[in-house]
Amino acid sequence: MSAQGGLAKGVLGTFESAIMGIAGTAPAFSVAVTTAAIVAAVGVLSVGSIFYCGLIMFGIMLAFFHLSKISPHAGAAYAWVGHVFGRKWGFFAGWGLLVASIFFMVSATIPAATSTLVLLAPDRVESTVWVTGTAAVWLTLVTIVVTKGIKHASYTQLMLTGVETAVVITLIAGAFVEYGGNPAHTPSLIWFSPFSFTPQLFATGALTAIFFYWGWDVTMNLSEETRAGATGQPHPASQGAFWAMVNLILFFIIMMIVVLIVLSDDEIAQANTNVLYAIANKLFPAPWSYLAVLSTILSTIGTIETQILQFSRSMYAMARDEMLHPRYSRIHPKWQTPWVATFVIWFLGVLLLFSSSYMPTVKSILESSILAIGFQICFYMSLAGFACAWHYRDKLTGGLYGAVSYVLWPLLAAAFMVFIALYSIPTFDPITTLLGIGGILVGFIPLLLGNWRQTGGARG
């Protein structure tokens, strides 16, 4: 246990939690970094993938929403899955998040770096050395802000999200005005039709689409630092997650339609991680088009911040319960942040960044990390969905709302995530398999070490 006290209490409210949830998915970043991959995989059915995965993720959000009633906990999925299914399952739910967050430091900081280089040194954008070096600088700066306290992180997030939202709304409005009557891809109901998908196509698109939504659950990891709600009302962290998810589903569907009506398939592929800039470049003259690059940078900084928060709070909670070494539960006496756990993700993120610089292209780094993260998201979130359905199984006989909200929707969402993950494994290349599956299996090492410590092996 930490000898330096706990996390800061009562800092965030419902509004701040919702902003954190939205920023956690990084709307502009998600569109910029993931669009080329999902369009390459499923084409115009990207819109349907985003919609159906939104429904799946909403079911997982309901699971977190209801499980949080057990108790607000910085460990979130780790704590609640452990409460329902036992400590080992809880450990792996937490471990899945930790590993995904570490790989995310690569897939998130690289778009921030490429966008920065577009503005400052365009000729260096395809250089993996320059990109990874710039990414490491961004990761370091954001880590400093997060370590200084949750208030600093919250204020920074409000500012970043506000500017990002203004730029993206401008892009959406401009796209419909300029290309609504002459789209690059003609809108069709086929984009949404479930009958357009084969199981393989759905799984491939869904694994990437899930990456769009990941990050909203940071609100739950910050629940110990959120003000208590009124008696009988949902916790503000849960309310923040709900409103974040509603906004995100609508935004991502609209934004994917915008991408398809403005850009051709070739333009999307060539844009790679700068899809928003490609859209802005067709809508507005320079230098106004560079505002899209700015929004990507701000969005990416925001999601790096929330992922560091999510990782550090999860690691802190697991160490506090001695599932990981207690050193990771140390709290800074002044800033009230888990500074050791924060340092861990910074160090591992920088290490992975410079290791990935040996891969041949920036694109290959991103594709491998995105698919691996998608697999790990399916793993830990499906555990939460199953835990909610099992914990509240008595609700099946308590009326339609209780049966659907507490049991059926979370259960179906969890089952879909398992299907997506298993169906996608045969499509992985060796690097993705190593990152996605190997990253989870490595968890047996700290789990066994934790058991050894708790049984007195370390003292013996």
TrEMBL record:
Keywords: Cell membrane, Membrane, Transmembrane, Transmembrane helix. It is a multi-pass membrane protein. The keyword Transferase does not apply. It is found in: Cell membrane. Its main location: membrane. InterPro entries: AA/rel_permease1 (IPR002293), APC_superfamily (IPR050367). The chain crosses the membrane at residues 21-43, 49-68, 89-108, 128-146, 158-177, 197-219, 240-263, 283-304, 339-358, 370-392, 404-425, 431-449. Pfam families: AA_permease_2. This is APC family permease. It comes from Dechloromonas hankyongensis.
